[in-house]
Design brief:
This protein is mainly beta. It has a single domain, classed as Outer membrane phospholipase (ompla), Chain C, CATH 2.40.230. About 5% of the residues lie in helices and about 65% in strands. It is built from 1 helix and 13 strands; from the N terminus they run H-E-E-E-E-E-E-E-E-E-E-E-E-E. A 12-stranded antiparallel β-barrel has the order 1-2-3-4-5-6-7-9-10-11-12-13. The radius of gyration is 17 Å and the shape is globular.
Amino acid sequence: MKRWLVLAGLLPLVASAETGYYLVSVYDVEGQASIDYKYWNAHYKNSRNVASPEIGVGYGVTSRWYTELTAQWVQFDGRQTRHTGVEWQNDFLLTQGQFDVDVALHTLVERARRRDKGYVVEIGPVLQTQVWRTQLNLNLFWQREFDNGLRNATELAYQWQVKQRWKPWLAPGLQGFGERRAHSHRAGPAIFGEIGRVKYEAAYLFGRNSGRAANSFTMRVQYLF
C-alpha cells in the first residue's frame, strides 16, 4: 500500500510536464513533417525515479503555423509503464525577422487518458533573438488544469535558453525551466545539433521539481521529412 501511495504522489509531477523539460522554439518549417521523440527522467532523493517517454508527429502547416500531436507515457524506476494522455500543440509565428526579437504564440491542450482527470490548457509568448552566434530564448506560459469541471489556480511557467551556434552538428548551451506556484526551478548544461535529417538536443538539469530536490535528464530527437 505504501508503494502505491508514493506513486500517487508522483503522478501530478508528470501531468503537465512537457514544457517543463523541452524549450519551445518556433521556426518557419512550412511543408516539413517530423517524427518527434522526447524523454525525460527525474531522480528524487529518498523516492522513486520518474520518467516520461513521448512520441509525436509534427507538421509546418504554413510559414507561421506549426502543429504537433503527442502521446505520453509515465514510468517508475524504468518499469510499470502506463499511458497518461495526449496533447495537441499549436504555435504561431507573429514576426519573421523584421524586429530584433522574434515573437510567437504558443498554445497547448493536454487531455488525460482517464476522462475524469480532465485536461490542461497552456498559452503564452515565445521570444527569441540572436547576438552574433549566440541564440537567446525566453518563454512565459500560463497553465491551468480543468478537473471535472472545476477550474484550478493558474500556474505561471517559464523557460530560458542560451545556445552558442558553434557547429551545425554540435552547439553547447544552457537551459532553465520553472513553475512559480509549484516552487520548481531547474537549470543546467545542454547540447544541440543537426545531422542530416536528424535534430537532437539533451540537457542535465539541477534544482527542484514540485518543491522537491531532483536532478533531471532530458532528450529530444526529431526525424525530419
